[in-house]
Amino acid sequence: MAFSASSLAHEAASRSHRSLNRSTNVSSQNLSAQSSEKLQSSHDRLASRLRQKNIERQIQAIQDHEDDRQSSASGSSRSGGAGATLLKGLIALKNDMANRRLRWLTYAVALCLLAVSALAVAENLIYQSVYDGVVSQVEKVAKRGNAAERAVSVVEAVRSLQLARSTLGDQPGLWTELEAITKLKEDTTTLKNIVPDLSPTKSTPLPFPVRINTTKTMITLPLLEAINSAVLKITYILSAPSSDSLVPIEMDWLLQNVGTSILGGLNVSSLQPLSEMPHKDARRIGLSSVGPFVFLAVFVGVIWPLYGLIEENRKKFLNVFLDIPKEVVKGIHENHLNRFLALEEELDDEDDSNVDVERHIMKEKLLADNQTPGMIDGLTLDSDRAADDFDDTEDYSPTTGLFKWLFHVRDQHNVIPKAGVVFLLCCAYFFSAGGLTWKFLNGFEGSVESVFWAGQRGVFVRGVEVVGREVLLSSGSTPIAETSFPVGNLESLIEGLQFIQRGLVYGSEEMKTPSTLASGDVKHVELLLRNACVEGSPEDCGTFNNGILSHGLQTALEFYISTAQPLTSTTDPIPPSTISLLRTLSQTYFPATLQKSIDLYTSPITEKATWFKNYHLTFTVIFILLLSASYLFLFRPLVRGMAEDIRRTHVMLFMIPPEVLSKVGLIKEWMAEKKGKGKKKRKDGGGGTEVTKEEVKDKEKGSGKKVEIMVSAAEMV
């Protein structure tokens, strides 16, 4: 039975007063008047101290059970308070789950963009290795072609030294000892530089085997060992005196092998890069184009499901407001607005630097809600509604279409346009770079073939000179000097030189070379048809032999071939001036021009590689910056907006009275699930006895009654 606080206090005060009167009457009968007054005063002080201690104990009890006293004073039942607490806990649990998913979404987006950035850096390194590999192979072809030309030069110089040290002596224009020694030193340096490039690898432990002719038998050596042997023999010849008995043997070895086996090995080695470049790197291009697919897979597999769960939860909470009477929602909204208006009035009295900008923005949203139907605290149940309104009110044009697209991108509740922007960036970066590289790999083959054949052109030019001199030495009824080494057929050499030059200038399917004239390379066309004098040519290049080189390399080579052509059919003695002219053109005027032609064939490849490396590095940096900007200006505002919506939605739910909120269908379902889980047995924390929820409530009611009695006693005192 419940008693009011006033009746309990009155009854307790009456009992205390009657007891005090009885005690006072007994004392007055036994003591004198003077002692009675002292006793009365002492008794009053003792009673006062007891009352003070009693009040302190009751106040402490009131503070320890403030919630129970308030619920008791308000007349609400314990079961009602437990229901409200359960409802608040349920909303808080849903809020925590939404925030946790939002954090997962943030981490997923950040890791996805980080992974794409890492792929971009990796692809940049792969592309750089592709272009560096192509340039390296092209330079290797040119380097080995130059070494092949030097091999022919070694044969010519050794033969000149052999003739000069014979009884014939020096023959200026045909051979001299000093000229031969100078040439051998230059050739040795070039051959030394080519040796490291021919080192064995795991795939080719015996690269480019060649057959070497010794004094006794034929042996097989790797090309680099054969070149090393030739270099050692040349070094010995240059350092040993001419009377050394081993010098003729070493010369004979060089004449037998350098112009045949070693030259053939160098030509084969020049062809190797042509077959190695495209295939391996083409597979690399396929592996490096996975960036857009990685982003798409992460978005579809992780980001989109998380976003869908968050949006579904948000719309469920917003749908709660549709089941609440409009008067309640309107009252909550107006109360929310009034609080912000009051806060703004308070902030107006403070310094402007202390104004909370975010609160002003929220106030503007609230003011806009008063004039916008279907909005709840700046929130809408349909994220596409504003875009639909835009479509209804504006006629289509490119400008409005752009604004509509930008609106979708900036929409806080639409992640697909934002992901679409990043996906388009990925496609632009990965596919464009991959396409350019694939085009480069498919387009440089003709240029590399041209580099190879340009090197072979120099070999044939020197070969015509060497064989032409041997024809001179063996012409006439009495040979000037016997040829002790194998030489090529002069007619075949001339035909080969004509074939190579024609294929380079006009293109050839057999040589797989494009037409230089049709390539549009102005510098190369100028070199071929107008002026063959370049940097490094002799000063009299433009006037030598009636200015033959000033009319272009094509004209000069035609003159060279026409000069050597009679040597193939005549039986008459050949004038030395003919060989002297061939040697002068081959050794003095052609080298700089032929090297310039090779450089013009290689420069488009190296320039494209350099351009692409710089371009792609810049593009990679811009791409990573754009990914960072998309995270900062697209996804971060999305996450912040969703977090703000979740916070405001749950704050508004806490503002709704529990008795109103508990009648909403969705809340009923959630509470039913929660209570269904609560019906399971659980252990009591004190003695381990299993109790049900109803028993716990009974215990709480009992303790609540005790608190009510203690509160009443405190009020009585």
Automatic annotation (TrEMBL):
Keyword Plastid: no
Skewed-composition ranges (Polar residues): 21-39
InterPro entries in UniProt: Tiny_macrocysts_regulators
Organism from which the protein derives: Rhizophlyctis rosea
UniProt-recorded name of the protein: Uncharacterized protein
UniProt entry tagged with the keyword Ligase: no
Superkingdom, taxonomy of origin: Eukaryota
Residue spans of biased composition, Basic and acidic residues class: 691-705
Segments of this protein annotated with the region Disordered: 1-45, 674-705
Transmembrane stretches, start-end: 104-122, 285-307, 617-639
Keywords: Membrane, Transmembrane, Transmembrane helix
